[in-house]
């Protein structure tokens, strides 16, 4: 069996396990009420204000673990539970997403590079699956479609790895701020840090999985050259 294929399977299993663990952690820490009694919305608005950011709105978005920062319309989108919750988990998520808003406001280089890649990725995603599929089928006749597909997939893999420092930095900013501002107690801080660690691991596994998949498709091209 192709070693890259084995790695893909391993990363898929690891991703599933980490997602389960992350969900478990957030459910557990959502039961721990903050002594400060601040909701996710209040924490997000306070962090934005402390960093002099006045043009970003904090809004509620449907779903679970759907929290994100949208630089296009400058909104911190908090899932319904995080938006209203007053827990260690909510504090971690709300501050983390505001960490991205702070990155945007301070022109954090990794975030700028990541944002600049989005238009190209949007265009690539429309054609990449078809090219990879056709490329494997047509490989004996011509390697060109697969070469183009692999090049496109390489861009998505790069995006996955560029995302890592962006996410790590947002968590670092979040934890430093909630500690400095007295939003959490030492015990609550440890819970917030643990929750963000597991969230970060999902990005790490996703990046490794993307790399493994890239190597899997690239192996077809390398095998053809050996032939």
UniProtKB/TrEMBL annotation:
InterPro entries: Zn_peptidase_2. The chain crosses the membrane at residues 118-138, 144-164, 198-218. The keyword Cell membrane does not apply. It holds the Pfam family Zn_peptidase_2. Keywords: Membrane, Transmembrane, Transmembrane helix. The keyword Ribonucleoprotein does not apply. PANTHER family: MEMBRANE PROTEASE YUGP-RELATED (PTHR36434:SF1). This is Zinc metallopeptidase. It comes from Hymenobacter fodinae.
